[in-house]
Amino acid sequence: MSDLTLVYISLSGNTQSFVKRLSDYLATTQELTTRQINIKELNHETFPVTEPFVALLPTYLEGGNGVDHGDVEILTNPLGDFITAHDNYKNCMGIIGSGNKNFNHQYILTAKQYSKRFGFPLLGDFELRGTSADIERLAAVILETKAKWNTAN
């Protein structure tokens, strides 16, 4: 059994690299084991996730400017489908977004949209593959969120 479940989609390998390094960090510093569910590997298969989890996703958009309507999520839709299926969103403690800050207002826009759509918090962000400081910062946020979730549930 894992101590923490991470549900993510990685297309270029950046998010997967971050999840692996985050998992290694949590194992080393907190002795936490993680269950990693890479949606890309499921080929649109869904199943119930009954334990609390954190979702992570990059931003891939087409059109729009991040301010007005017009942007369309592309490539990461299977994560949204997975979170919707079996009411998995009810066990999502929050989401972490990644992207490229060069995209200005569109930076982590997909994570912001998921947070609003599903009603769970945006826990944080990292750029591209993330840094060691991002790993430490987001690990602390995840641990705090997990503690609050366990107390509330």
Textual characterization of the structure:
This protein is α/β, with parallel strands linked by helices. The chain has one domain: Flavodoxin domain (Rossmann fold, 3-Layer(aba) Sandwich), CATH 3.40.50. 37% of the residues lie in helices and 22% in strands. The chain contains 4 helices and 7 strands. It has helices at residues 14-30, 77-84, 109-118, 132-152; strands at 4-8, 34-38, 53-58, 61-62, 72-73, 92-99, 122-127. Strands 2-1-3-6-7 form a 5-stranded parallel β-sheet, with helices on both faces. The chain has a two-stranded antiparallel ribbon with strand order 4-5. Helix 1 links the parallel strand 1 and strand 2 (34-38). The two termini are 19 Å apart. The relative contact order is 0.19.
pLDDT averaged residue by residue:
89
Pairing-aware structural class of the strands and helices?
A: alpha/beta
Say what the CATH topology is. Answer: Rossmann fold
Q: Please, what is the oligomeric state?
A: single chain
* CA-based gyration radius: 15 Å
Task: Please identify which CATH superfamily we are dealing with.
Answer: Flavodoxin domain
- From N to C, what is the helix and strand string? EHEEEEHEHEH
Please mark out the parts with pLDDT under 50 across 5 or more consecutive residues, or reply none. none
What is the number of helical segments per DSSP (H or I, 4+ residues)? 4
By CATH, the architecture is named 3-Layer(aba) Sandwich
Strand count: 7
